[in-house]
Amino acid sequence: MKTTRHATYNLNYHIVWLPKYRNSVLVNEVADRVRTILHEIADNKSVEILDLTVQPDHVHLFVSSPPKNEPALLANWFKGISSRKYNHRYADHDGEKIGWVRGYYAGTAGHVSSETVENYIQQHKEGDS
Fold first, then answer.
1. How many structural domains comprise the chain?
2. Catalytic residue positions?
3. CA 80/CA 86 separation, integer angstroms
4. What is the pTM of this model?
5. pLDDT tens across 65-84, in order?
6. Any idea what the CATH number is for the domain that residue 88 is in?
């Protein structure tokens, strides 16, 4: 259990998102850079990363967050800040920018089946929304 000044909580969220156009760009140095940036964001926002997996074509983030941070806010922070930081630091150097699709998957702690995540990813194969 964690506490804030006015709350005791155990809120954990599983957030998954994809690179724009579902390109498999999150490999090698790019994946390492994205991981580092995501940890920086978590530290700055007082959010604990419980697990993080950067796959070539998607990111799995499992975080613990105080009650004031709703899942949509967390997804917007991690997606928006990470792409801005990455592009600011590395796009001029490497020439390739990182962008994310508009949507994301968010689930609360508990059992998230691989089928649920695969369905989300499959939906974006056809129509990169």
1. 1
2. 120
3. 10
4. 0.83
5. 999 999 999 999 999 999 99
6. 3.30.70.1290
